[in-house]
Amino acid sequence: MAESIQRYTKDHEWARNSAEGVYVGISDYAQKELGDVVFVDLPDAGVVLGQGKSFATVESVKAVSEIYAPLDGEVIRVNTALAEKPELVNLSPEKDGWIVLVKPTAPAQLEELMDSGNYGAYVAQIAK
Amino acid sequence: MENNSSLKKTPLYETHVENGAKFTEFGGWLMPVQYSGLIDEHLTVRSRAGLFDVSHMGEITVKGKGAVSLLQYAATNDVTRLAKKQAQYSLLLNENGGVVDDIIIYRTGDEEFFICVNASNAEKDFAHLSNLNRFGAKIENVSGLYAQIAVQGPDAARLLGAVLQVREDNLALAAFPYFTYREIVLPNEFGVKAKSLVARTGYTGEDGFEVFLPPQSVKSFWDALAEAGLEFGAKPVGLGARDTLRLEVCYPLHGHELRDDICALSANVSWAIKLQKGDFFGREALLCERDKGLAVQLAALEVISPGIVRADALVFSGDREIGWITSGTKTPTTNKAVALAYLSPPEAKLGNTVEVEVRGKRVKARIVEAPFVKPFNKR
């Protein structure tokens, strides 16, 4: 696998490739908007993801947010630590708070997403 | 935020923006939903003190000959049992026995009352009272004349005493009991001879106060509370935590547990409905519903399987739909997913297990005793 790259979606998910597959989670901006996360409804391993389609939900005390797949693929692993510690999504959204590990079926989709610079500009635009 | 131009703002809106609050629409108002974080704010109220801007709440006065008769007829509780300087929780019903609003009535004179009503219902309540006013009472919607700050939590008396420059023992529960109020002239720094009504009431299940004061005084008063509160670890608290606090102690929220189209007897607030006091508007419908058997009954649920259930989710027993969730969340104090639900009465039995549909999946819940957390006066 080539160097690790991390990309972002307009729905505020991030996706980062690795030797094992593509890790997916929600961005730091998303966790701040959501507030205290108290439950993550995880999919099962083996679930097939379609780019842009909802595959999990993250719940704060107040609200439910859908998580959309950044790319096509299959869930290889889920972050079971979130069952006990959903607050990892707040504490470490782009690292320990990852949600699923995905085996992509169209790896090129990753590069087409926003890089951190473009995503930063996108978020700044929304916040206006 | 977009499209908020039509929403009303309290005099503290800019202060909340400066404090980094997030906002939400509530009852036609743009209100702070959270500041430091909902869980932190919630636990601060349970352990120290929280400051709430509740200036969106409405106020109505009923005065003059006929005031007692009107409220005795229009509201469910017995207003003749209310002495001056006391407060009483009550309901306004429609002719079907549904709840127009839940209110707190303060008796300010022999024939003089100050009523706090829900923000979105103020105009409706005013019209409702006016329609029932064959007693000649003078009714005024004075919502524009008052801002309201709630100070809630175990340290509320110390904090409020410091800012009002009132001796602490005068704010002790023995001297100033729950559901009473005092008229207090604010210190001059908050406006020359500005009058406030300070009530020992609240919507959090903690000891605390609700302070009605002139809108032009509220900014300096809030700032003083926030500054004095630093010493106690007190914080501003948004509507998000206000909702989880009231849900833990099972206080009903109009539009959720109390509704125009649900019989008031279903809502576990019968202690505020005095069927024996004589005629009142909606009473006949209540008696009729009681004799017929209630269609639904409010129940407290604890979610057993992983997941959180929320308002409007449907409740099942096997294949049978037996009701719906009125409010639900994961509560910060107990860290459990809990809910209130309207259920068909035979299903609303303690210990009964039901299923709630959440995004196409079934989540198991058990009916438990309310409340989930005891309010301070029952601990």
Helix/strand order of chain B, N-terminal first: HEEHEEHEEEHEEHEEEHEHHEEEEEE
What best-fitting shape of chain A do the alpha-carbon axes yield?
A: globular
Helix-strand topology string of chain A: EEEHEEEEEHHEHH
Domain count of chain A, please report it: 1
Largest interface: A-B, 12 and 20 residues
Q: Give the assembly state of these chains.
A: heterodimer
Main β-sheet description of chain B? 6 strands, mixed
CATH topology of the largest domain in chain B: Gyrase A, domain 2
| CATH evolutionary superfamily of chain A | RNA polymerase II/Efflux pump adaptor protein, barrel-sandwich hybrid domain
Judging by the overall fold, what is the CATH architecture of the largest domain in chain B?
2-Layer Sandwich
Q: What is the molecular shape of chain B?
A: globular
Helix share of residues of chain B?
A: 10-25%
Describe the structure.
The complex is a heterodimer of chains A (128) and B (379). Chain A has 128 residues and is an alpha+beta fold. In chain A, 25% of the residues lie in helices and 34% in strands. A 6-stranded antiparallel sheet of chain A has the order 1-2-3-9-8-5. In chain A, strands 4-6-7 form a 3-stranded antiparallel sheet. The longest helix of chain A has 12 residues, at 116-127. Chain A starts with 5 loop residues before the first strand and ends with a helix. With 379 residues, chain B is of the alpha+beta class. Chain B has helices spanning 13-18, 38-47, 67-74, 122-132, 156-164, 215-229, 239-248, 283-292, and strands at residues 22-26, 29-34, 50-53, 58-63, 87-93, 99-109, 112-117, 138-141, 147-152, 181-185, 195-199, 208-213, 235-236, 297-303, 314-317, 320-330, 337-343, 353-358, 361-368. Chain B has a 6-stranded mixed sheet. Chain B has a 6-stranded antiparallel barrel with strand order 14-17-16-15-18-19. In chain B, a hairpin with a 2-residue loop joins strand 18 and strand 19 (361-368). The model of chain B has no long low-confidence stretch (mean pLDDT 96). Chain A binds chain B through residues 35-36, 38-39, 41, 57, 59-62, 64, 83, and chain B through 22, 33-34, 37-40, 42, 240, 243-244, 306-308, 310, 329-330, 332, 337, 359.
